[in-house]
Amino acid sequence: MSEAVRESMEFDVVIVGAGPAGLSAACRLMQQAQAAEQELTVCVVEKGSEVGAHILSGAVIEPRALNELFPDWAEQGAPLKTAVTEDQIYLLKDAQNARQIPNGLAPKTMHNEGNYVASLGNLCRWLGERAEELGVEVFPGFAAAEVLYNDDGSVKGIATGDMGITEKGEQGPNYMPGMELHAKYTLFTEGCRGHLGKQLIEKFALDKDSDPQHYGIGIKELWDIDPAKHKPGLVLHGAGWPLEKGTNGGFFLYHAEDNQVVVGLIIDLNYSNPWLSPFDEFQRMKHHPLIKQYLEGGKRVSYGARAIAKGGFNSLPKMTMPGALLLGCDAGTLNFSKIKGTHTAMKSGMIAAETVFESLAAGDEGGKDLNAFTEKFKDSWLYDDLFRSRNFGPAMHKFGTVLGGAFNFVDQNLFGGKIPVTLHDTRKDYAELKPASECKQIEYPKPDGKLSFDKLSSVFLSNTNHEEDQPSHLQLKDASIPLSVNLPKWAEPAQRYCPAGVYEVVEDEQGKRFQINAQNCVHCKTCDIKDPSQNITWVVPEGGGGPNYPNM
C-alpha cells in the first residue's frame, strides 16, 4: 500500500551506511569530481540517529588509508590524537595469573607502531563532516529497508523504511512512507552482517566460490579511570582465561586520551557450548588482576556490542554485481591477524569510488557489473594485506590458541604471511553448537556493581531506544521453534548469546513463552548469526532507533 505513494530521488551514487567504508567512498567520489570539474550527486543514508551513533570498534586504527584519503588529516583536526606507545600481549592462565608474551614471539601483525588509539565513532563523525563539505548529501535517521531492482535484474537503488507503522502493521497517526533513492550505482556499506548485503549475497550467489563467513562478537566498555593509572597509548591484548578450551577469543584494553580506557572481549561465534554467555564471560574477565589494576576505582561510562566479520580473505564474496558493490565489513574485509578493519574498509570504499567515477566519467549510465573493481582490488595493498592474513583465523580454529598462535608466528614472522599452504574453515559458526545435554553448565558469579554489571544496566549505558509501537525488527521464521526445538536441544541459547537481554524464556500461569524485548536491541546481529536453527532474521527497525554511542 505504501509503495504506491513513495516519492523518489535520483542520484549518481547512493551509499548505504555512514561507516568508514561508505564515508571514504563518498569523500573519494567527490574529490575526483571536483578535480575533474565534473558534477556528481552522491548521497549517504544512515540508520543511526546521527553519523557515528551505531559505530562500535576497539579501536586501534592503522592510518594507512586515511593518509591516502586526507594526507593533511592531522591539520584538519581528525580525532586521532593518541599514538600507540607500547604493546603488551598476555596469556591469562587462570583467574589470578597471567604470562606476558615477549613481543618478539608474537605475530608481527599484532604490533602497533604508527597506529592510534581512537574512537571510530568520532572518526566517522569527522569523515561525515568532510563528506558534507565536499557536497555529499548525508541523511542520518533513515534506514535502508529494501533493495530496488531494474527490469533487467540490476540494482536500481534502495527504499528507506516507512515511519509510523504500528506494532500491528498498520499506518499510525504519524505515518510517513519511505523514500525511493535511485542511483546509477549503489554501494552497500552496512557493516558486519548487513541485512541488505545478506540478501544480495544470496540473490547474486556472491559467495559461491568462498568459504563460509566467520564471526565473532565484540563487547566493549568505556571507562574513566584514576589518572595515576592512565598510560596514554598503552595497548594490551591477550587470550586464555576465562574462555574454556575449544572457545577462541581474546581481550583488549587500550589507554585512550582524557584518562579513559576501552576494555573489551571478542569471542568467536563458532563456540560449541550453548551454556556460554559472551556478556558474562566479559564481566568476569574484568576481575582478573591484570585488568582490575586499571579499572578499580574507575567509572564505567558506556557499553556496546557488535558482531565482527572475521573470515577474512578466504571468506570474501564477489564484491560486484550489476548496479552495485558490497564493501567494507558488509563484505568482510577485516584483517583478523591485525584485529583491524578500519583501514581495510576505508580502502575498499576508496577503490570502489575510483572505479565508479572512472566508469561514470566515461559515459556509463549505470547498472553494470563493474569488473574493473575486482582488478583494482587485486592490484591494491588491501588485497595483499588480506591475503597475508588468510590463515590466521583458520589456524586458531583448527589448532587452538597455543598451537594456532605458534603456526601464525611462523606464517607471519618467518614467511611474511605467504607460507605455501592455505588453511580453510568450512563449517558455519552456528553449526558448531552442541546439544546442551553434552556440555557443562557454566555458573557465572553475580555482578558486584563495581567491575561487573548486569545486562539491563549495561544496555542503559548504550543509550538504546526504539519507538515502542512498531513491528519487531527481530523476525522469527517459525514462532514455535524457540520452545519446540531450541529449548529442549540447546536450552534456548538466545537467552545467553544476546548481550542485551533481548531474548527470554518466560514461565507464567499459561506455561512457557518466548519473549523478544526488541527495545533492548543494540544492533549487534549476533542472533542472526548464532541461532542454531537459523530462525531469527534481523531487519532494520524504524530509522533512528537503536544505540547512540558516544565516543565509542
TrEMBL record:
Cofactor(s) this protein cannot do without: [4Fe-4S] cluster; FAD
4Fe-4S ferredoxin-type domain location: 512-541
EC number: 1.5.5.1
Key words of the record: 4Fe-4S, Electron transport, FAD, Flavoprotein, Iron, Iron-sulfur, Metal-binding, Oxidoreductase, Transport, Ubiquinone
Gene Ontology molecular function, alphabetical: 4 iron, 4 sulfur cluster binding; electron-transferring-flavoprotein dehydrogenase activity; metal ion binding
Protein role: Accepts electrons from ETF and reduces ubiquinone.
Cofactor note: Binds 1 [4Fe-4S] cluster.
Pfam families documented for this protein: ETFQO_UQ-bd, Fer4_ETF_QO, NAD_binding_8
Protein name: Electron transfer flavoprotein-ubiquinone oxidoreductase
Reaction equation(s) it catalyzes: a ubiquinone + reduced [electron-transfer flavoprotein] = a ubiquinol + oxidized [electron-transfer flavoprotein] + H(+)
